Amino acid sequence: MTAAGKSLRLTTAQALVRHLAAQFIEIDGRRLRLCAGGFGIFGHGNVTCLGEALYQHRQELPLWRGQNEQSMAMAAVGYAKQQLRRRFMFATASAGPGTTNMLTSAGIAHANRLPLLLLCGDTFVTRLPDPVLQQVEHFADPGISVNDAFKAVTRYWDRITHPAQILQSLPAAINTLLDPADCGPAFLGLPQDVQGWAWDYPEAFFAERVHRIRRQSPDAREVADAAAVLRSAKRPVIVAGGGLQYSGATQELAAFAEAHALPVVETIAGRANLLFAHPMNCGPLGVTGSNSANALAARADVILAVGTRLQDFTTGSWTAFGREARIISINAARHDVGKHLSLPVVGDAKLSLGLLDEMLGDYRAPADWLETAARGREAWNAYVDENIRPVTPEGGNRPMSYAQVVGTVNALCDPEDRIVAAAGGLPAEVTANWRTRSIGSVDVEFGFSCMGYEIAGGWGARLGQMETQPDKDCIVFTGDGSYLLLNSDIYSSVLTGRKLIVVVCDNGGFAVINKLQNNTGNASFNNLIKDCNLAVEPFAVDFEAHARAMGARAETVHSIAELKAAFKRAKASDRTYVISLQVDAFDGWTGEGHAWWEIGTPEVSESETVRAAHESQEAGRKNQRAGV
User: Fold this and answer.
1) pLDDT per residue over 38-58, tens digit each?
2) What is the CATH number of the domain that holds 521?
3) Among 61, 73, 107, 561, which is most exposed with the fewest C-beta within 10 angstroms?
């Protein structure tokens, strides 16, 4: 007994896991466990103590063993995104390289504002056995370990040096994971000795608690200011970001746009905020956007940005909007609403749109502006129709392209299947050519633009999907470069019975960066396999055989007709199915819809083409908004 009441003598690891297991969340009237379990690879730094505690709670917090620490934490990120940030999973690794492998995953979660709990082994607090296995010594500061590297990529960071500290630190970490404004990864360093130390914990620490996601009400004065600016608009546009989905405000967005005749353009993260068929959906915005959306953004006099951090691919490095355009920003995060002197509305998107709707009254954008938007939308849709066609207007066959593959899968998949893509050329091609058939069904990871996220994130998304949509599929688009970087969760998906459909588009290397290299006047170098430093003739990887070796079903196709037949077989399969195909590395890109993007180019070069590209790049800067 303690003065405060009953106590339980537990190790630090046991108390941590027991507290996690007692946390619940209310979602749409349902009571669910807040932490859906976790991913773990054990080593000497986490198996003996944290592993023992997790075993005792393996029913409440199921543990999934990944094949790579980086990919298993990516799977946790994919799960959190599929769950709209309302639930999370943890990832645990041993001390040393197992933990540092997860730095990249933390970067994804941080850039995308997604919850991820990292429980990582650390060196001994006593320092008696120092230096220990896998310890990186810092000669001038023995208190530093490799875990300090996570301070740059987490929202909350702590090293537990006494068992009592988790009474404050663990709830603080959970609060960070659930906060709409500060959501992001939380890191707890767990020294190997402290994990096993026991302490008398108050029993109340393990009482069940039900959490709810906070909705921040906007300041009525900020909304009134926004309404006044919007009512004066002759050419208004809504920029719809991923935050609308996390707020559950996509229906409010559609109703708001309809009521006030406001064209909507989507960011990459907000790519499935509106259905393709919605009359106000004017396409994706920015560097990998659409002619329709970019033309509206360039002419708009008022930009209503909702739930977006206004990343450079959205803003065309701040050239997509006219210099005189006023920006109103609605966001739960104070950090995001003030960018480029935006008029801020700090608050939840659902609540803010509702209040703004009331204050706008019967305001509707001018009819001629809506007609302009409709014409642009129609022209862009016609372009995509032609872009995804496998044959030319004359009836000849085109080389297979990303766009054709995306269009084929789009036409054959179930409307509610989940789509996952990440770095390389596919994010642009999916963003430009995908036609949304169900809300929130597209995950294009371009916040951190992380190669290797595709299959791992797809596995995590499938774990979440199985809870609510077990009869739907998770479809992963990946290039050969990303596949070779991180593919082992094909094996994980087979082992765990979480089927994926993986479409591998092989273009012979890092073709999109080769395109950037060529577009800036440079010769192809070290991107396409054939242009690398090789000892043998370049050859194509047999992705089909590789996937089969990990237990998946797989086949290679050579035409869009074969892809259609293979995709139907993949849909009917009871396990992960990989479809491999080769796409054109040079002429198969979507050529329209691009905004200017700032990149560094050599001011001085011996190459005439590089100098010319630099001059062209600098000429594009004339429309850049310099902080206003």
Assistant:
1) 999 999 999 999 999 999 999
2) 3.40.50.970
3) 561
